[in-house]
Here is the input.
Amino acid sequence: MAKKDRYAKAPTTERGDLSAQPRLHQRAAEIQEYGTVSHMLPLDLEEPVRLEMTEQLNLLLADTMTLRDLYKKSHWQVAGPTFYQLHLLFDKHYEEQSEIVDTIAERIQLLGGVSIAMAADVAETTRIERPPRGREEVPVQISRLLDAHQIIIGHCRKLAERADNLGDAGTNDLVVSDLLRANELQVWFLSEHLVDEPLVRAEEPKLRNVG
Here is the structure.
């Protein structure tokens, strides 16, 4: 092959000249605005139902993402004689909440909505109290986590009933099976750590302070 042929210009297509150069710094208009749902999806659910469900699920998503991160903060910063047990427990619950986050987001997208995603948007939306940046005692860490769970569980119960009334069986099943039951189980594991029991030395019954 002649040299001029070897370095000939690459063939063109309808998309223009071919090039290995990445197309960087691209921007364009959104293809779907937040707070909307795609029209005419074959889900047998009317648009107003899907709008309401995606709005409520985004609230749950923001709270669940906050709870997830609160578990990771607690995992990193826990201290004291129960460090090892709680360090592992907090991380286990973090991983479980991470799975729940993905489940909620996928349900929102499935319904034709847009799931909340970025930390700044989550911070503006969540109903969970923001903790300080510094370390807190174990009872305070656990209490914060339980308070967050309570917010989510209360919302789950209301949303499950509402979804059932609107005929959205899929959202009802997700909220009960994937969110409510998982959060209830985590509450049990957490709350048992706040029972006021002696750590290394049992007390005589008559010496116990009851009341």
